[in-house]
Design brief:
The complex is a heterotrimer of chains A (125), B (444) and C (494). Chain B has 444 residues and is α/β, with parallel strands linked by helices. In chain B, 36% of the residues lie in helices and 14% in strands. The relative contact order of chain C is 0.14.
Chain lengths: 125, 444, 494
């Protein structure tokens, strides 16, 4: 699995970029979900979020998952193109697959890349 | 009578393999005080005896083919069912299969449902159809679930036309009681009011407007203006449609409807005292993820054959559990097949003929009944195969009189509309039957 | 290879071809409604009757069915459907009775429904039964609505939590979700029972009730069922029984006697209504005395007592605090109730007990035959079904591969990937209508497949290879989302 160093990670597999405020799901998460066929962003630009609020709903052929805000703040951007190309979440989870951008808030209780990798390894069965 | 194909010797051998002495020993986990109750049920019958008993029960009904002349509709219609429909339904390969979870060995069911979906989408003028719901009323209730999910609970108001089938409105209320929805618009039972009475109820809090086409009283309205208003307020519109009428009338999709549902019983499904029937559900592609129910989609197998699978299953209850739009699990598979065979074997010409016969005969009946002293029709809107007859006496009284003469008169709209009878006429009613009805009412 | 595909009825259509023709009108002609209300085109297929018959006959041969072979789909009770049921439900008196015709002209139907209510009460030990729900999930929804209405009627509005074991069907939490309650998942203990400690911790005065499938989806009858029920009731909760697995309990124990308050029946599982390729089902609901006033409306009752000479008069009545109507009309009468009624009528009390006993014998026999070859995570005497793990040490073969390979041996696979608490689950329910030879052939095939998983795993990964269709591309279906077909472009101009 791949977990860029510059990002922070939630236990529920979201990543947060403290530099840009971008939020998405991790490589581990997209791999677990397998082929993603549907994504719906549940929040709108300008909305104030608290940590843990549902921000998106993702479905693959065999699973479905809610995505939660890993940080608080105001939604400054929403990746509107994502619903047209949900497979982007599989192919580029840390790039084109970003979901929303947050500003003016604070990160929740997040792990760094190393901590997250250890956490994921512990979950493999 | 038993259907257990195990001999006593085989049973004993199997018990030995399991490691217990008797069948009763398999049930030690059951609390002893309640184990093996003696059930008080009638003694078992053989097949021959059961067949005779059932025939007796069935014949103690008066049915609308052999015993009664029927002008009763109100959501269930007596139509001709071509022979071929039941011959296909009786194929054990269809009726003794289950939900096509294993597509490699379920392509028959899957393709039939795909065809059913296609037929319904073409008929309603919509982009997609699901694999069906329990009946028209529950399909209408599922439309409310779709709208609720679409607005993520932010809008909670349903505007219901009073000219939607009363039982459908009851079911919508039953379904929505847990979600804190508000249902408005249908508090006055008044057949005189059309869509113009519904429009003022639509506002920015409205998630769904539900109307019927033709409406419960048989009338045909173009809902384009109502739909335009609803869309301006951001609300969705569900049209409950009669499928037979759609063979003649402008499809609700052309009027801009977001959801078209209805009862497909008229398509090859017997009256059967109310069920099982077939609720169809069609919508726009953009709402497909919020739509409940099974969906069949086209794909390819590993050998390059075009084939079909259940698709978007991750939005259903077995994966989404408490987050699913609906708990629906089954569809009405076999009856969706009945509808597909019915539409296929009648085809575009035959179906048009059915619709035209219904229309012509209903209008002949209406014209003749209207001539009778004391009877009248409200002709403010065109009608299809059902109409409200204003009667000089309470409709209940008229129905009792007609029944004494072997005629099911129609649906008594009382107590709210007590001198009004909802009369349905289909291709099954001959001119002689209509003339009999008219003659009886003249003599009354 | 791609030569077995059957065209759709749209592709088979040819302009001007006719199937069934309707008679000419025998009444004077009336003008049609204004043009603006008419449709310009009716884009439906045109075929002759023989085209339609051959098409659907061909499609039928693509299906696996109970009439065609062994169908051990766990939790679905795919038993043989007696043919007499088919004739019974097509008797003209049933087929052609209108749901709104006056009760006095439908006494045969109403008597059947009344007796069915009484029989289901007797079989389950409940005080009241509604026949209205259209399917198991629909019955479940009705049951949860009644539980909510009961608490509300007592002004007990704090109750928002529904307790559901981790082995439950997805319909349980989904039904609860439709009412906006919170689901609290209760784990199972190592013997497949409800974990009593976890249950105890969850029980408080905010509990609506518990939804319990017993035997559960592991096929295990809960060994502490009376304790479980007592705990839920002691905190003021109601006990919901999922009747999906009632086949194991007929004449063995009555859920009402154990203290359940509400349970749905699946007439299409337990009482041999055919599954129809996914419906219609039928899901009556039984309730204890304290929920009887909340049953969906209407019920069938005797409205005028009879005597030795005259039969009683049956009619519809509304329960006092009914949750309302679940669907239009009165339930799945013809295709559901008549078939199930016929089945119960032919079995009687002893016959029903035989069903449960042999269903349980067959499951235990298969379990014994597979023990040692397949890992059985909850290994004790099972009820009507059991669950094995579809995986082997040192092999990348999965439950899915085993399932697909079973098709090559001409068996329908068990339910796979359910219940969720067993990795690579294969849930096997043979039912009572299979003979020992069939069970042995199935066990032999399962054992052979276990061998193949070691010697020729590629056979399993590539399976099925002998069926007419191979594995499907489910990702393509979900991404392209082709849900309908249409007549070819320009068809109507031809």
């Amino acid at each position: 699995m791949n977990a860029p160093e510059n990002l922070k990670y939630a236990k529920s597999d979201e990543w947060f970029d403290p530099a840009t405020g971008a939020v998405g799901i991790s490589d581990y998460a997209q791999n677990q979900l397998s082929d993603i066929v549907f994504v719906e962003i549940l929040v709108e630009e300008g909305e104030e979020l608290t940590v843990g609020k549902p921000i998106a709903s993702v479905e693959s052929v065999k699973a479905s998952s809610e995505i939660y805000a890993p940080a608080s703040g105001r939604v400054s951007a929403v990746n509107k193109g994502l619903s047209e190309k949900p497979e982007t979440l599989n192919s580029d989870p840390y790039g084109e697959g970003w979901m929303i951008k947050l500003e003016g808030g604070a990160a929740g209780d997040l792990m760094d890349a190393g901590g997250y990798e250890t956490y994921c390894e512990g979950r493999a069965h | 009578m038993t259907y257990i194909p195990i001999s006593p010797a085989e049973r004993d051998a199997m018990l030995q393999t399991v490691g217990v002495k008797t069948l009763d020993d398999l049930f030690d986990a059951i609390p002893k005080t309640h184990r093996f109750p003696q059930l008080d049920l009638p003694p078992a019958l053989t097949e021959m005896e059961a067949a005779a008993h059932l025939a007796d029960m069935a014949s103690s009904n008066e049915n609308v083919r052999q015993d009664l002349i029927s002008f009763l509709g109100a959501g269930a219609y007596n139509h001709y069912i071509p022979s071929v429909v039941d011959h296909i339904l009786r194929r054990g390969e269809f009726y003794t299969a289950y939900t096509p979870y294993q597509p490699e060995i379920s392509q028959g069911t899957l393709q039939a449902i795909f065809e059913y979906q296609s037929l319904m989408a073409n008929l309603t003028g919509m982009e997609v159809s699901n694999a069906s719901h329990y009946d028209g009323a529950t399909a209408a209730a599922e439309a409310a679930n779709l709208a609720y999910a679409q607005f993520r609970g932010k809008r909670k108001k349903i505007v219901l036309s009073p000219a939607v089938h009363p039982q459908y409105r009851e079911v919508i209320r039953t379904y929505s009681q847990g979600m804190g929805l508000e249902t408005v618009g249908d508090d006055i039972e008044n057949s005189e009011s059309g869509p113009e009475a519904v429009i003022p109820h639509i506002d920015e809090a409205t998630m769904l407007v539900t109307v019927q086409y033709p409406d419960f009283f048989g009338r045909i309205y173009d809902y384009a203006d109502l739909i335009k208003t609803a869309h301006e307020k951001g609300a969705l519109v569900c049209v409950v449609a009669n499928p037979t009428a759609l063979a003649m009338l402008k499809p609700p999709g052309e009027m801009g409807a977001d959801i078209v549902v209805g009862e497909a019983q008229p398509f090859g499904i017997p009256l059967w005292y109310g069920g099982p029937y077939l609720g169809f559900f069609t919508t726009k592609k953009s709402y497909v993820h919020k739509m409940a129910g099974r969906l069949v989609g086209e794909t390819m197998d590993a050998r390059g054959n075009r084939s079909y699978v259940l698709t978007l299953t991750a939005r259903e209850q077995h994966i989404k559990r408490e987050r699913a739009t609906s708990n629906i699990c089954t569809n009405q598979g076999l009856l969706a097949l009945a509808a597909a065979v019915y539409v296929s074997v009648l085809g575009r010409q035959g179906l048009r003929e059915v619709a035209n016969l219904c229309y012509q005969k209903a209008h002949y009946a209406a014209a003749e009944l209207e001539k009778l002293k004391g009877f009248s029709l409200n002709r403010s809107a065109p009608f299809f195969h059902e109409f409200v007859l204003n009667t000089p006496k309470p409709a209940g009284e008229i129905n009792r009189y007609l029944l004494d003469h072997g005629v099911l008169g129609g649906y008594d709209l009382g107590p709210g509309m007590k001198n009004q009878l909802l009369v349905a006429v289909t291709e099954m009613n001959s001119k002689d039957e209509i003339d009999t009805l008219v003659a009886l009412l003249k003599e009354m | 290879m791609a030569n077995i595909v059957e065209p759709t009825i749209f592709e088979l259509s040819s302009p001007g071809r006719r199937g069934v023709t309707m008679p000419a009108s025998d009444v004077p002609t009336t003008d049609l409604p204004p043009q603006s209300l008419l449709r310009s085109d009716l884009p439906l297929p045109e075929l002759a009757e023989v085209d339609v018959v051959r098409h659907y006959m061909k499609l039928s041969t693509f299906n696996y069915s109970v009439d065609g072979g062994f169908y051990p789909l766990g939790s679905c009770t795919m038993k043989y459907n007696p043919k007499i049921n088919e004739d019974a439900c097509r008797l003209p008196g049933f087929l052609f009775s209108h749901p709104l015709q006056p009760a006095e002209t439908a006494q045969g139907n109403l008597a059947l429904m009344y007796e069915m209510q009484e029989w289901l009460k007797e079989i389950s030990g409940f005080a009241g039964v509604t026949l209205q729900p259209a399917a198991g999930a629909h019955g479940e929804f009705a049951g949860v609505l009644m539980m909510a209405a009961y608490h509300k009627s007592r002004g007990d509005t704090r109750r928002v939590k529904m307790l559901i074991p981790d082995a439950a069907h997805g319909t349980n939490p989904a039904s609860v979700g439709m009412l906006g309650f919170t689901v609290v998942t209760i784990p199972s203990d190592p013997r497949g029972n409800v974990d009593l400690e976890a249950l105890k911790a969850a029980c408080d005065d905010t509990v609506v009730g518990m939804m319990l499938t017993n035997p559960n989806t592991l096929g295990m009858f809960d060994e502490h069922i009376e304790d479980v029920i007592k705990m839920v009731k002691d905190c003021g909760g109601l006990m919901y029984g999922d009747g999906a697995n009632l086949n194991a309990l007929l004449g063995i124990v009555r859920p009402g006697d154990l203290g359940f308050d509400v349970m749905h029946f699946n007439l299409h599982k337990t009482f041999s209504v055919p599954h129809g390729g996914g419906g219609p089902g039928s899901g009556p609901v039984g309730v204890s005395q304290r929920l009887a006033d909340f049953l969906p409306s209407p019920l069938v009752d005797i409205v005028e007592e009879g005597d030795d000479e005259i039969a009683p008069l049956y009619g519809f009545v509304a329960p006092k605090h009914s949750i309302g109507r679940m669907k239009a009309f009165h339930g799945h009468f013809g295709g559901g109730l008549v078939r199930a009624y016929t089945y119960i009528l032919m079995h009687g009390a002893d016959g029903l007990k035989d069903i449960a006993q042999y269903a349980v014998l067959n499951a235990n026999y298969l379990q014994a035959r597979l023990r040692g070859t397949y890992r059985i995570p909850y290994d004790r005497i099972c009820m009507h079904e059991f669950v094995v793990e579809g995986r082997f040490d040192g092999s990348d073969v999965r439950a899915l591969d085993i399932s697909k390979r079973l098709m090559d041996y001409n068996f329908h696979p068990p339910t796979n990937y359910f219940p969720l608490i067993v990795p690579e689950a294969l849930m096997i329910e043979p039912t009572e209508t299979e003979n020992k030879d069939t069970l042995d052939r199935f066990a032999d095939a399962m054992i052979k497949i276990a061998e193949e998983s070691q010697t020729q795993p590629e056979l399993l990964h590539g399976a099925p290879s002998t069926t007419r269709f191979g594995r499907m591309d489910e990702v393509k279906a979900a991404r392209e989302l082709v849900l309908c077909c249409w007549l070819p472009e320009g068809y109507s101009d031809q």
